[in-house]
Write a structure and sequence with these properties.
The structure is a single chain. With 301 residues, the chain is an alpha/beta fold. The chain is 39% helix and 22% strand. Helix 1 (13-22) packs across helix 6 and helix 8 (255-261) runs antiparallel to helix 9. It is globular and about 55 Å long. The model has no long low-confidence stretch (mean pLDDT 89).
């Protein structure tokens, strides 16, 4: 297929671009700057100079082009922020960015649209030991009046706009917490220090960015319209386990300090116990993670 990819230079975008090209697909990649355009060319994709939040500029940039699919992988998660608001940059990309890309898909004649979502939309709370599936409520009745609510509402808005669009077959990919090269949890020597709750913290699903990229290609080729897929590895684990497997510098913080410094991370790292199944993605997309857990993924990195 000929694919327009938004977010090609991000943590998942780089391995995704390579995976798409390996699969025989042609990649048009949005690039806001000369540096991004050069990075896109180095990956083997064709840059399209546009800012996804500039609707008119985006439509001018795709005028005369054609594509079979659009993939939305844009976020603005450069570093943990102390506070989140409804107009957080990532939420703007999930809301207005999704709307603009859906309009661009119409101009391109693209019949497929994939968007990045997160398993955190199931809620920042203790879900017990049961593995959740796509049949469980997503973003419904899980808001708890904390700063994390803005993340959940942004994810729900992105999925809702996609599934309401009549001109594309939309698929949402609910990824686990990314780890691997280019992420907050990068095992490369010299990477930034990682904050870790004393005692290890809560349990969350993880996924290596290379596995996430391969799952996205599988969803592009075999995903069903109007469906969401959990993209996670086999074994959820607490933050302390991943930090130990990662190696490198760690900053051990008591819960009160983590909540005070970055309330969003406090909600995620301390309160959340979440286990999620990828059985649907395995059954319908033919995808299983190459790295069954973070220990295998970190060793490979």
């Amino acid at each position: 297929m000929r694919v327009l990819l938004a977010g090609a230079t991000g943590a998942i975008g780089r391995p995704l671009t390579r995976a798409l090209i390996r699969g025989g697909h042609q990649v048009l990649a949005l690039a806001r700057t000369d540096g991004s355009a050069a990075a896109v060319r180095a990956l083997g994709a064709e840059p399209v100079r546009a800012d996804v939040l500039d609707r008119d500029g985006l439509l001018r940039a795709v005028d005369g082009l054609a594509a079979d699919a659009v993939i939305h992988q844009l976020t603005a998660l450069k570093a943990p922020k102390r506070t989140l608001t409804a107009d957080d940059p990532s939420n703007v990309l999930r809301g207005r960015g999704t709307t603009n890309l859906l309009e661009a898909a119409g101009a391109l004649g693209a019949g497929r649209f994939l968007t990045q979502s997160l398993v955190l939309g199931y809620g920042y709370r203790d879900h017990g030991d049961r593995f959740l599936t796509e049949e469980d409520p997503f973003g419904v009745g899980v808001l708890n009046g904390s700063v994390a609510d803005h993340v959940i509402t942004g994810l729900v808005e992105a999925e809702g706009r996609l599934f309401a669009a009549a001109h594309v077959a939309g698929t949402a990919l609910r990824y686990g917490v990314f780890y691997g090269p280019g992420t907050w949890f990068d095992p490369t020597p010299g990477s930034r220090a990682m904050p870790v709750p004393l005692g290890g913290g809560g349990v969350v699903p993880w996924v290596h960015v290379e596995d996430a990229a391969e799952a996205t290609v599988a969803a592009l080729e075999r995903g069903r319209a109007g469906e969401a897929y959990n993209i996670v590895d086999d074994r959820p684990s607490h933050w302390g386990e991943l930090a130990a497997a990662r190696g490198g510098r760690r900053i051990l913080l008591p819960g009160w300090a983590l909540r005070t410094m970055v309330p969003y991370l406090g909600e995620l790292m301390l309160k959340t116990r979440l286990r999620v199944s990828h059985a649907k993605a395995t059954s319908e997309l033919g995808w299983t993670p190459r790295y069954p857990d973070h220990r295998a993924g970190m060793r490979a990195a």
